[in-house]
Every structure is written in structure tokens, then in C-alpha cells.
């Protein structure tokens, strides 16, 4: 699903109105019907709603919804916030229709004393501002929003929490934006919903299809996309009947150090559970018995050092290389990584300490071979690129670096963002907070290495790897719950996850 900039929404709207064709007031009615259906499915008729309405079309949606909910016998109170005398045409039309219907109370709020008492159990519908927000909230609206946020009520925002911008919120104070429990967005999510920093405002979000014209959605360009299972299925390779282990590649995983052999075990197991033909795990000498016992399917390449990574085997024998989980940051490891980056002409995935080494030795960035996959979490990202002004700025830095260096970057977190050499950004929907646990990233590195060795392009290896990692984590969380989930559980559910997307 493409994710459009707020500035593109009016164009999509206008195209739909002209080419469907449909009158704009009828498009608003369609959107409001979807909202109404969503609410009717979830709430009993004793439920009362307080709808806060602004001057634009977001307010118009709120007014149309008030009429539809009243028609369905819900108790509705409307609060029209007086910011300007002028309402948008469709907002005014829906106000007139609501007045004619004459079954909901309509109050004007011109100061805080006009606000109602928010009794527990009330649902507030936030229809103050939508994608037409042009500046951060101030004065009266800001105070209204703070009062709503402080009240012990459930809040449902229409299209976007009022006060939040669809993209960049670096100049915004999130305390002054509505903190919604649910956000019901029309047709697409907004980019800002996918950034972890905005979760307190957005709550749980859903998209409601409102029949915007498919031709304009198809044609209009956007660098942002939310991927889904069907898209991932379209990228998968099938295993051939007459294949052998050589068909699925030989991977080299450089991982582990004294006290961190677990990382090498987790990454190796995940790699082997994701379809690779052969795996060699390069580890310091002390880890020999540990790895041979824990992962008998992997061959072992031994470092001359007992405790850290200081060298690597001849790369010629391998189809892809993964390096980083648990390697530690020592002088000799830095030198060995430098050499590897300069020599390596094989598909490569870098994680954890490999990224931290580059973060501490910035000149190494320019040696990254084209097509390399980097898989930082936010802290590692900031070690690589410095502090960011906010999530939008971070995303821009990520896209620009991918483009400049022709690398794939995987910024891990909820809605992991994957950027490619064209500056495109793909957000992943799978995964859950239970996966924020030690070793989860090592598992991802193993999966991606496996896919690279099997001949997936860097971008496809990253997309499929991130999706399947999240899916296995979701299946594990279904079984064990998020709190008890550990990285080994993600590996245990890889078979089910692969079966599901290969079926
Ligand atoms: N295609 C779709 O998806 C469909 C979209 N639909 C709906 O339309 C919504 C977008 O509507 P919209 O463009 O009228 O903008 P909206 O946010 O209601 O308000 C703009 C008004 O607010 C004002 N204003 C702005 N910032 C302000 C501030 N800080 N403080 C005070 N005032 C401020 C601004 O004034 P100005 O900036 O001109 O000074 C203007 O008067 C969208 O979110 C969705 O709900 C559906 O109806 C059907 C199909
Ligand atoms: K809103």
C-alpha cells in the first residue's frame, strides 16, 4: 500500500471527484458512513458520543457522522470549536443537515468554560483537524486538546489525531496533539503513524477504504510503501525438485566472542531454518565446542584468537557473508572488518557490533560495498549518523544514505523501515513488542544472510527477511505471549512462518 504525503491527498480527492465522478459532499458522506459502520460494530446503543468539530472537512466528517449516529439511535453531542467564522463548504453543508435533522445537541465552544464535563465511559470523537492542518495548535484549540487528553475518556480520531502532522512533527509539541486510543484514517495511513515517537498520539490505527479512484492511486508517485503478505509472496523463490544443497548457497556468518557465543548460535540457527544450503560460522577458538554442540548443521571456521574476531577465511568459497552479532569492538576486530569491507565483493549483511565499529570509525562508511545491507536499531543508527531532529529527519537521512551509497538499510523497530538505492522506503507490518528482546536482531541477521546466499537481491532479502522474522515473532507471541517471548522462540516459529507464506 502506497503512503502519500498530506499535500497529495487533495489531488487524489480532486481526481476522484472529477473522474468517478462523485460530488465532494457525497465522498464525505461515504467516508462518514465507513466511520459510522466501524462504530456501530463496536458499541452498544447506550453509548454516548461527544464529537469535537473543527472548521474544515475533518469537521465536516464529524458533523456527517453525528447525523448518521443519531439516525442509528446513538446519543450524540456536537461541540463546534469556534476558531474562524468561515467553515469549509462541505462542513457548512453538514452543519445545516444536522440542524435540520434536529436530534443531536450542537454547542459552540468559544472558551474553555464552554467545555462539557467528561464523565467516565464517554467516547470523544476528534474531528477538529485532519490533513489540512497548517500549523501547530495554539490558544483555545490547544487548551481544548489538553483538556480532552487529561480526561478519563476513550478518544477516537478521524483521519489523524488533531494537531499531528502527517509527516514531519519536529517543530510540533506532541503534548498539544490529541492522544487518541484509535485513529481511523481514510484509505491510507499517514507517514507519521509509522514512527514510534508518534505512537502516544496515534494509538491503534486502522484504515477505512472510501473508494478513492484506483487510477490516481496507481499513477501517483510516492517513495513510501507499507508492504503486506501478498507483496512478500510475490518475491519468493520456489525450491526446485532437482536441486541440491549447492543450489541454495553457502553462507559465511562471522559472529560471537567471549561471553557472546549465544549470538552466533541464534544467528546460525535462524540462517539454517531459512533455507540456506550450507553455512559456515566463523567464531573465536573458545566457541568451538559450544557451536558444534548447539548447531551441528553448521560448519565451523576458527579464528586465531581465542576470544574475538580478528581474521576471516577466504571469501571465494562463499555466496554471501553476514557479520556482526556478538563480535565485540576490539582493535583487531576493527582492522579485520576494514579489510573485509575493502575486499568483499559478495552480498553482505552488517549488524550489531559491525555497525558500532563503523559508527566509531566513520571513514569506513565509504568502503561499504554496493548492495550491502545494514540492520541498525535506532541507537546504532544514531551512532552511524548522529542525533536526528526527529523520526522524519531520521527517515530522510536513511533514504539519502541508501541512495548515496547504493546500500539497503533496515532500521529496526515497530514498522521496520527498509530503504533502497532509489531512496524508496518500505515499512514492514509484522512483529510485536515481545520481539524487543536480547538476540532478536541476531535472528534477523541469520535469516537475511540465508536469503542472500540463496540468490535473493539485497532489497528482496531485506524485505522478505524482515517480514518473516516479524511473522515468526507474531506466531510465537500468539503461543507464549509477548512478555515471555525470547529470541529462540522466534526461531522455533520460523518453520510455521515459512510454511504460511509459501503455501
Ligand atoms: N480524500 C480524502 O481523504 C477525504 C478527506 N476527507 C476529510 O478532509 C480532511 C481534510 O480537510 P481540509 O483540507 O478541509 O482540512 P482540515 O484539517 O479539516 O482543516 C483545515 C482548516 O483548519 C484550519 N487550520 C489548520 N491548522 C490550524 C491550526 N493549527 N489552528 C487553527 N486552524 C487551523 C485551516 O485554516 P488555514 O490553514 O487556512 O488558516 C482550515 O480552515 C481530511 O483529514 C479528512 O478528514 C473526507 O471528508 C473525505 C475524503
Ligand atoms: K482529527
From TrEMBL:
Residues the record lists as binding AMP: 412-416, 441
Highest rank taxon of the organism: Bacteria
EC numbers for this chain: 4.2.1.136, 5.1.99.6
SUPFAM superfamilies on file: Ribokinase-like (SSF53613), YjeF N-terminal domain-like (SSF64153)
Reactions catalysed according to its record: (6S)-NADPHX + ADP = AMP + phosphate + NADPH + H(+); (6R)-NADPHX = (6S)-NADPHX; (6S)-NADHX + ADP = AMP + phosphate + NADH + H(+); (6R)-NADHX = (6S)-NADHX
Positions of the YjeF N-terminal domain: 9-218
Entry note: cofactor: Binds 1 potassium ion per subunit.
Keywords: ATP-binding, Isomerase, Lyase, Metal-binding, Multifunctional enzyme, NAD, NADP, Nucleotide-binding, Potassium
PROSITE patterns to which the protein is assigned, alphabetical: YJEF_C_2, YJEF_C_3, YJEF_N
Residues noted as binding K(+) in the record, renumbered to the chain: 58, 126, 162
UniProt domain YjeF C-terminal: residue ranges: 228-501
Gene3D superfamilies listed in its UniProt record: 3.40.1190.20, YjeF N-terminal domain
Subunit structure: Homotetramer.
Protein name, per record: Bifunctional NAD(P)H-hydrate repair enzyme
Organism per entry: Ancylomarina euxinus
